[in-house]
Design brief:
Elements lengths: L2 E5 L3 H12 L5 E6 L14 H4 L12 H6 L2 E5 L2 E5 L4 E4 L4 E3 L2 E4 L3 E3 L12 E2 L4 H13 L3 E4 L3 H9 L5 E4 L11 H13 L3 E4 L3 E6 L3 E6 L4 E3 L2 E4 L3 E3 L2 H5 L8 E2 L11 E3 L4 E5 L4 E3 L4 H15 L11 E6 L2 E7 L6 E7 L4 E8 L2 E8 L2 H13 L5 H6 L4 H5 L1
Parallel strand pairs: 1-2, 1-7, 2-3, 7-19, 9-16, 10-11, 10-16, 11-12, 18-20
Antiparallel strand pairs: 4-5, 5-6, 8-17, 13-14, 14-15, 20-21, 22-23, 23-26, 24-25, 25-26
Bound molecules: flavin-adenine dinucleotide.
Length: 400
């Protein structure tokens, strides 16, 4: 019997095993994960779960009965190594599990802040359910809260923490890596209106304290009082296993357009995979639910004999200080932007172009624009500036 072994029981690992069964795969399916309990989704950890408006069961991707019904073996443990010659993996407890196809879905881990005091009690991060539980408990009795990092996770944490916080960002704008300046400026204003302090162009040089953190020292030498510091400075892909097994690693496990490594038995998907992205025209690693889910489906199709090169449109969403931002496409290399809609009313979209071709649409509180953008990119991967200008950058009109 053919065995598919998936390492990492997060968003993409779960989807891979579910899609294999959806496609009628009748072999053995094993999902190994090192976090406790059934697989769960991460987005609510910095939103409703953090705010206390969603419970544990709303995090779960499926209940235990699903895995029994679908005959998916859930193995609790951490994979320590891959033996490619013998086609098996070894868990830390010595258990060996063999495979015909191996899917690496090991995700990413939080980047640490390389400054003195970063290991003081009261300095926390957010990636797992355990992290979110710790943060919720700490928020209950923290006076001054400082968030280091103005990316998606830091800003969502600030938005759902239920109190004003100070956000410290080293770059000169929020969401620097992932959004246009128009969107960065809008969200900086929104977070300030919501009562947060936003400090831009300020690095953190040290954290000070005694039995716990007390102050954050900024690059200009000033100090902020802090009882809770949340480090949200991005992630690094979890590639330890792949590298030790001699697979190519370069900002993620390197895979081809079928998400396969140079070893034809081994795939990599989700946050840990560096793949040739059609839309970016370059090797890319994405951190999103869409990417995790669609790459898992792509690999399940390849394993069940229907391989298609991976070409799904990247899209993303985030909820911050009462606004919903949705992004379709990839911003890399944008050289022209157009704002459509009513920015003052907080309902608008930013259209980004590269060489007069539309490459991304960021929509703030305009879900219809987001859906239209996704349809547009699917119907025509290269919509042109002149054609969109003719419909006054109204995406829905343009689709008609
Ligand atoms: P993960 O879901 O991280 O799963 C990887 C799993 O592998 C983990 O459980 C890990 O412990 C396990 N693992 C690693 N190594 C081993 C090993 N050796 N043995 C066994 N198990 C191992 N995306 C969006 O699109 N929208 C959002 O709003 C959004 N919000 C987010 C909020 C938070 C707080 C976080 C952390 C992420 C958010 N994301 C969001 C990103 C999204 O959750 C990730 O892109 C997605 O989870 C990636 O799925 P994955 O399967 O690649 O990795």
């Amino acid at each position: 019997m053919t065995t598919v072994l998936v390492v990492g029981a997060g968003q993409s690992g779960f989807q891979a095993v579910a899609s294999l069964r959806d496609r009628g795969f009748e072999g053995r399916v094993v999902l190994v994960g090192d976090e406790p309990g059934v697989p769960y989704q991460r987005p609510p950890l910095s939103k409703a779960y953090l705010a206390g408006t969603a419970g544990l069961e709303q995090l779960h991707l499926r209940g235990e009965d699903f895995f029994a019904e679908k005959d998916i073996e859930l193995v609790a443990g951490r994979v320590a190594s891959i033996d490619r010659e013998a086609s098996l993996v070894r868990l830390e407890d010595g258990t060996e599990l063999d495979y015909d196809h191996l899917v690496l879905a090991t995700g990413a881990r939080n980047r640490t802040l390389p400054v003195p005091g970063a290991d003081l009690p009261g300095v926390l991060t957010l990636r797992t359910r355990d992290d979110a539980d710790r943060l919720r408990a700490s928020l209950a009795d923290a006076g001054n809260v400082v968030v280091v990092g103005g990316g998606f996770i830091g800003l969502e944490f600030a938005s759902h923490a239920g109190r004003p916080v100070t956000i410290v960002e080293a770059q000169d704008r929020l969401l620097n890596r992932v959004a246009t300046p128009e969107i960065s400026a809008y969200f900086a204003a929104l977070h300030r209106e919501a009562g947060h302090t936003v400090l831009l162009g300020q690095g953190v040089s040290a954290l000070h304290g005694d039995s716990r953190v007390r102050e954050v020292e900024l690059s200009d030498g000033s100090r902020l009082p802090a009882d809770l510091v949340v480090i949200a400075v991005g992630v690094v892909p979890e590639t330890t296993l792949a590298a030790a097994a001699g697979l190519a690693v370069d900002n993620g496990v390197v895979v081809d357009e079928h998400l396969r490594t140079a070893d034809e038995k081994i795939f990599a998907i989700g946050d840990c995979a560096n793949f040739p992205c059609v839309q970016a025209g370059a090797a890319t690693r994405l951190e999103s639910v869409q990417n995790a889910v669609d790459q898992a489906r792509c690999v399940a199709a390849a394993i069940t004999g229907a391989p298609e090169p991976y070409a799904s449109l990247p899209w993303f969403w985030t909820d911050q200080s009462g606004a919903k931002l949705q992004i379709a496409g990839i911003l890399a290399g944008a050289d022209r932007t157009v704002v459509a809609g009513d920015q003052a009313a907080g309902k608008f979209s930013v259209l980004s172009f590269r060489d007069d071709v539309l490459i991304a649409v960021e929509s703030v509180n305009r879900p219809a624009d987001h859906i239209a953008a996704r349809r547009l990119f699917t119907a025509d991967p290269h919509p042109r500036y002149a054609d969109l200008a003719a419909s006054e950058f109204n995406l829905k009109e343009h689709l008609k």
